[in-house]
Amino acid sequence: MTVYRNTRRRNKGAAGSNAYKGAQPSPAAEAPSASAPDEGAAAYGSRGYALEAEPVCEPDEVTVPEDAAADQAAAPAPEASDVVDVEPEPGPEPETTTAAETEPAPEDAEKDAADAGAEAGADNLFVAAGIADELAAATVAPAAEKAPAADDAAADDVQPDEPAKPASEEAAAAPAAHRTATVHRTTGETDIVVELDLDGSGTAHVETGVPFFDHMLDAMTRHGLFDITIKATGDVEVDAHHTVEDAGIVLGQAFCQALGDKRGVTRFADVAVPLDEALVQAVVDLSGRGQAYCSLPLPTERVGSFDTELAVEFFYAFARDARATLHVRELAGANSHHIIEAAFKAFGRALRRACELDPRVSGVPSTKGSL
Prior knowledge:
By secondary structure, this protein is an alpha+beta fold. It contains 9 helices and 13 strands.
């Protein structure tokens, strides 16, 4: 920055009187008005004061004539109010500057100051941008290296929380508990154990000592989609009657226990099953009143060693202890084996549908409120 000081030398109008000797007016510093001032006015400025430049920083070496230096030493000290700060133009300062050359035109001075400010602002922006880039490189790079592999693995294991589901949806999505029961009954004639799962897949493990009866219980289980295990020992050397009837009693008790209060069950079911020429209908109502009505006219008394009338005895015993109403009706048939097997299959399917849970049923399916 250069500070211009006013030496307050008055212009006496003469070119050589008390003027800065050796400082000649520059053609570019002449006033733009039509009437040119005299040479003395041009040397001392438009206000009649001689101007000289005094840089704040260490100035370049300037040669000053001896008489001019003497005049400058004799001049009075400048006042503080006469100091005017002017922003210099960028670039190196000339080695010698005359008083007339250091006074730019007003418009040119403003333009030069604006250009200098713009260039300085641009330089500041470039410098700031460089500093910002360095800061970003210094801060962002370590952040990228901050997370170790263990944290990444832990972050991968974290799963976003799922939105909460309504209680009704959760109850519907949750698998229903299996309805099961185990019954053991011992008499002087039989010893029978039954394990039952109403919500099974149709798996049967049956050992009664009566082969044809085992085959019928297996068919009933597979079509009813129950899981049943029956182990029975009885006086089969006398007759299979006690074993078949007691098996019906224990199996009926197991169904009654597994059904509980019958809340949500379908209750009613009606199924007709064919087997070749035979057609048998089975109708089940989990009414709570154990009774059976069977119409199974069979053309033969035996199928192998099995007494065919024992099929009806099984249905009567089961319905009584399961506390269900059961109808078994032969609609067509000529072969005793076909008729009995169709009856057990129809009974298994009807019992399955009656025991199934219906999501639309609220409570016990009865106007009385209990079954």
